[in-house]
Amino acid sequence: MSGSMLTPSFLALLMSISIIEFYWRKQTGRDYQLGALGGTIGVAIGQTVSKALSNGVIAGCLVACHQLAPFEWPIDDWRAWVVGFFAVEFAYYWQHRFSHTVRWLWTNHAVHHSPNEFVLPAAIRLGWTSLFSGSWIYFLPLAAAGMPPLMIGALLIFNLRYQFFLHTEAIGKLGPFEWIFNTPSHHRVHHGSNSEYLDKNFGGVLIIFDRIFGTFAEERGDNPVVYGLTEPLETNNPIAIAFHEWRRLFGDLRNAQSLGDIALALFGRPGRGKERTQKREAHA
To answer: N or C: which end of the chain has fewer CB within 10 A?
Structure first.
């Protein structure tokens, strides 16, 4: 969720629902890590500042691409908004999927997956380096195809605000609604570090693209979700949270012994560089 999503009214709603969730977790015997909450708030403040500094650059790139479009979508036509909704969902699916499978993108997105428990405020624990990671590039083709940047921005705001309500254990499965839409159950799977749940359920509002492209996984009662990273991050320091994966990336680059190692560290799947180093050391 972008820092620009946190308007005063939405922030008030976020806080109110989060307080309700806090009491629900206490009443049902679940833990609530207040230290982690403090770390999340610190990360969210930093992300708000970073977005304020980078949004102008990203918006400028969208406008520049839009000026190259052969035609413009009519922003006052509801049909354009319907098509735009599915177009943004499609672009978001691939942007999100590659943010898990390309190391350079993961360095920023890993921040969001660092909480070791699944509570509503985890939705605003987001990376500070999105401008440099380049995940926003996936929406440039929409602007180049004539979709107004204002429409792209509005639909992304809707997408990201919807996802805030997915970060909870308080809501169980929702029946037929889950066939089409992303739900808390689907998103719990997405945040799981279990091997069966890794790199699954990348949708924003919809789950249909996961079903189409084979990245869907159902939450199973016999396989409880283990939240957090595959190597849990045990710190509540906002700066350490925001840059932990960058630190690991630069460590892999320092240990690289070939151009292949460098390419793998930068653009391979997260963890592949470490696996390659371990195999090399085992055969040394």
So the answer is: C
